[in-house]
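Worked example

This section walks through a single chain of length 99. The input is the sequence exactly as stored; nothing has been trimmed or padded.
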Amino acid sequence: MSETQVRMIPNPVPPMTHPLGSGWKQPDPDSFKFFQEVSGGPMFVSITETEKSNLPRYDRGFPTGVYDGKMWICEDVLVWFAPSPELPDSCRNMVAKII
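Given that input, the structure is written out below as tokens.
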């Protein structure tokens, strides 16, 4: 059985610039370490316990307000909104497994 090869990738979380973001508290994602399988598979993220505790949890739903860069935790996954390439002025959910 071969090991999966991963590489460190740049922070994929866009900046949270929407005015509604001023009321949403979250750590700076630039301090997170993101990884992806070399084959282009799923993303992973390494965050500290403090960073994890400073992210809201939504295990059974979504937060209100949809705008780029908004992050939360759902079970053991970091979730964030990013611009949708298919629909202008829309967002899509992006995910990275917390390791």
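What to look for: The chain is about 5% helix and 30% strand.
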